[in-house]
Design brief:
mainly alpha, 2 domains, three-stranded antiparallel beta sheet, 7% strand
Length: 135
Amino acid sequence: MPLFTLNAAANACHRSKSVLLNAIKTGRLSATRNDKNQWQIDSSELARVYPYTIEQSVTGSKNQNRTPEVELLEQLLEQVKAERDYLKELVEDVRVERDGWRNQATMLLTHQPETPKAEPVKSRLFEKLFGKRNY
């Protein structure tokens, strides 16, 4: 993997040099020093801490050199975003359906028809004692 200087790494990940230097000093970003006492940051380490898109190659050409790994990661990111959007729509559909069922249950519970009053049960004891009378 190519190594970036502090300035090149800052340009590649769109951060300031002080942010990268602070990350190196706190141990979040690993880097080494070269013979000229400049910080050397591995591109994979920079991508781990600060995801970025390579705008120029290490040689400084104007062409956007993209590695197959970067392209694969971008494709995977697009798939994940599409699945996330699908799941958001699915969750919204489930919420709408849930609210519909809740409203239907509320309507059924609050608008119950009155139960008819049951006729009082006639006691057969009175008929046994006094006989059946037709009024």
